[in-house]
Structures are given as C-alpha cells and as structure tokens.
Amino acid sequence: MSTDPTVAAESPPGAQVKVQFITSHADISLPENTGPILVPTHLRRYGLSSIINHLLASEKPIPFDFLIAGAFLRTSLDEYLTANGLSSESILTLEYVRSLIPPLYLASFEHDDWVSTVDVLSRSSPLPQLSSDAAGQERILSGSYDGLLRVWNMSSQILATSSSVGDGGHTSSIKAAKFISPSQVVSSGLDRTVRIWNYNESSDHFSAELEPLLELYGHTGSVDSLAVHAPTNKILSASTDHTLGIWSVNKSDNPTAPPQLLPSRRSTSARSKRRKTTSSDSTTPCRGPLALLRSHTAPVSSTVFSPSDPTVAYSVSWDHTLRTWDLVTASLVDTRTTSHPLLSLTSLPDLHLLAAGTSARHITLIDPRADVTTVSALTLRGHANAVVSLARDPESAWGLVSGSHDGTCRIWDVRSTKPSTGAVSGEVGESVYTIKREDQPDGVRKVGGEGIKVFGVCWNRELGIVSAGEDRKVQINRGKDVMASSE
Questions:
Q1: I need a surface site. Which of 55, 95, 236, 309 has the fewest CB within 10 A?
Q2: In angstroms, rounded to a whole number, what is the distance separating the alpha carbons of residues 186 and 180?
Q3: 304-335 confidence digits (pLDDT tens)
Q4: Residue 19 to residue 93: CA distance in whole angstroms
Q5: Structurally, how many domains does the chain consist of?
Q6: Which residues contact 264 (CB under 8 A, 6 or more apart)?
C-alpha cells in the first residue's frame, strides 16, 4: 500500500477513471476534502481496498467491499464500465463497507432424533426479549421429531424438557416452536395441535420447567409453522389442511374447541394394550381458534405477521402463492402467484420485501405492497435442494440466512448480485457464505440412509446463526458483524 492513490498503483499502465469514495460509517470515513481519485480501471476489490487503507493510514489493513449503484462490485472497474455502457470519462461513486466476515462454528447440541425447529431468547430478540441485565442467560428452544421441546443454555445443558404423551405433551413430531415471552413457549406439530407452555426457571438459572398451559384445536392437518406477535398476544399457524389459524395466548379469548377434533378418551384396557394415552387424559384446558383463514388450495407452509402492521399477515403455500390477509376481518386482501411451491417465509422490513424459499432451490424476493405489479423483485440462487427455512439478519437491512434440504445454510446480502445466465433474464443474487453441518463438511450421507437436511434456522445478534437438522443436532455459528450494517 505504498502506492500514491492519486495515481493508484502505477502498474500496469492503461485506462483510468475517476472514483469518488464514500461510506456511511464514521469510524472509517475519509477526510471531508477527499475528492474524486484517478485509479486504473483494471482494479478490483482488493486493489480498491488497498487504496482506502492507504488513505486511512491503517496500521492493520481492513478488507473492504464496494457498492456501486446499490450492488456489490464483483468485477473490475473496466468490466463494470463496459457492461453498463460507461466511458472512462465518467466519475464513479463507490460506497465502501467492511467486508463480510464468515461465521465460525461454535458448538452443537445433540438430540435423540431429528431437530425440526429452533428459536432463541436473548436481550436482542425482537420480541420477546430478556432484560438488559440478563447477559449470559440466552436460551435456545428446540423442537424435535421425538415430540419433545427442550430449552438449552449456552453451555449445552438442557434446562427443561416438555412433558410427554398423556401428560399434556405432543403426541407426534414437533414441527414449529417459538418463545412467546421469557416465561411462555408455543409449539405445534404433526398431531394437528398448537400448544402453549409456561416456562419457569429456578432462581439459580440451572434448571427449569415446561408446564402445559393450553391446547389449541382447529386444524385437521399437521401444523408446520408458527408466528408470534407478543404485544397483541396473537399467534398465527400454518397447516397442511390448507388453512391459516389465528389464536390468542390468553385462554379466555379463544372459543370452545371443536368437539369433533378433540381426541377421544380411551378405555383403561385399550390404553394398557396400546401403551399410549392421548392428550385428553391430561387436565390441560382445550380451546379453539379465533378464526381459520381459507383460500389456499394446497398446504400452507409458512406465515408471518407484517412487520409494520400486526393486523396484517402473509402466508405462502405449496399452491405457488403468497397471500396477504386482514386479520381484523379475517379476509383475503391480495394474492401473488409465483412459478413454484413456496416453503418458507421471512420479511425484510427496511426493504419492503418478503423472502420466500421455494421447492425449486431458490429464494424469491417479493414486494407485497398493493401498488407493485411485479411479482419477483430478485431471485437468490445457490442451494441444491428445497429452501425450507429463512431468517433475517438482526443487524443489517440487507441480509438473511436460509436453511435447505441440501444440508447447508447460506448467508445472503441482497446487494450481492450478478447477471443471470441461460433463459432467466436480469440479475440474480448469490450467497456470500455457506455454512455446512459440522460433522459432514463434504455433504456425504450417513450410514443407514440418514442425511443432513437442515429443517430450521434462526439468526440472533448475541448467539449468531442457530440451525437444526436431520443430523439430530442444533448447530451454532457465530461471527461479529457478519454483514456490513445498513446504519
């Protein structure tokens, strides 16, 4: 970095272009009087990064990425000028940010069966969240195909395990689970129920209990996805019965459970023969839904509340559609039809976009606002199998993480794009990092046919990226400022 940036790397000779460097980060900003700098057009990210470090007089070089017209520069300046029909007489404005840092493997928590879902409770959870003085008390909630919920601390200790069949527990595999508050949890699964639990920790925080509080009946198929809006005490559920359920956390708000959906009581002799009791043998109260929203024509795979209006919800389905709902009137507002079954959903609120994972191995970004006519704003490609779980980056408006049946999680920055090839026109997004399962780095399948599918993923500011999979593990990968902040 001994190069004078005004002639920038004097080698090799060739065309040059003026570049104005800007950044939104005060700690790495250049002096205010720094004007456009003449640089060789053959420079790529590394050469441009060297120039910024020289201008900042950095003792330790900082790797930078560069944005131009809102997208990452992934070519030389010359290639960019040619692709966009610009001459070397132009003045290019490059925004520089710290390069993305790969999340490193931290730990794995082992289960007895496949792990279908994970959630995190910490001081930075959107809602619910721990108090500011609860450092070191972060909790991971996992749901498993063995029908049990578990709450873990960061020392891989199980603090609490949910009750089993006959004691108010699930009678089949759990498919979704979330914290409602630091003292309540909601779960759902193949047994077609939504269940609310009280979570109580001991005063020394070394043990806890999950106690059944409420059983919610209304669905006639597996309940595969949940969304929670803590301030309004509302829960959304997505089911394979083609419906979206609305529920209240408060028992008294929910109507009587449909009697035809309640499990029948078995006789003592029948129970002794089958060695299995149903949840109706417990004393847990049963209630029905506030409403069941019907419009989808195939299993509903995922649902979220609108980040700007809790009276609005979005759902995606195997019927290829994203649907917008008014929860006050329990009515359908809008339908967007895509080319493939949609399996997962998350929001990017600062960009007014929804990200939907598909069975066709990609993620499609959709602007759900009524005045937008284009269905797909951008397509993110890179997975080799269905994208079944999504979570947004808690520290960046541009980032999200996806979990796939290809056994990986991928980190995306929607500003990282490249021209598409083949029949697809326009630009597509490309992942910036791939996280593999720690014990199967090459993606090989285990003996006995068990694979490494990722079923669930969560991204938390304190804990990092937490994923669940077919390898019977919750895996944690963490890196500080994985994404360049949008602030």
A1: 309
A2: 7
A3: 999 999 999 999 999 999 999 999 999 999 99
A4: 6
A5: 2
A6: 278, 280
